[in-house]
Here is the input.
Amino acid sequence: MSSDALRRYYRLHAPIYDATRWAFLFGRTRLIQLLSRAFAGVAYAGVAPKQILDLGCGTGKNLCALANAFPQAQITGVDLSPAMLAQAGRNLVRKLDPAARARISLRNTDIAQMPTLQYDLIVCSYMLSMTGSQLPELLQKLRSLLTPTGRLAIVDFDSTWAQWFARWMSVNHVRMDGTLAACLKTFSHTELHEQHSGLGLWRWLIWIGR
Here is the structure.
């Protein structure tokens, strides 16, 4: 999906995004719960992330959850859509206190143009399946942005058995052919949860790894 196409798409969808996506963007709350538990556990040495990147932060749902789960972290939300970031800004004001909001910065940019900072945690929620042929390159970029002990956390669509549904999702710039899961095999994971939608129409995954 090109940057221009994405901006046009979300210019229309930003106002209704939160009211409609709950019906099929499953696992977002669960991902933050798993991360909160994992970083408090032995495997992560009980060290909470200090620098967090939410890539494709959209309307800020994950930003709010991350701010609450990791109260000492500095959080950067990145999105290519100015309309989605504007909605995120409104949601942050509505849902977080000033101290929590002060720890969050919003950036309207492409990840390729970001400073080469190092993050303890990078979260990608339902955006990697929209990157098309750029997915392998983007995953390598994310690898370079992680600290040596940093984690990549993903919740996203994986695949569907229904060709008509795959075609419909492709109209919405989403790829559902198992490519994401295949690409993630180049990383080592600490958690992998693969689940089906309520009617079994598609499979989605939660993946946390390095």
Summary: The chain has one domain: 3-209. The radius of gyration is 16 Å. The mean pLDDT is 88.
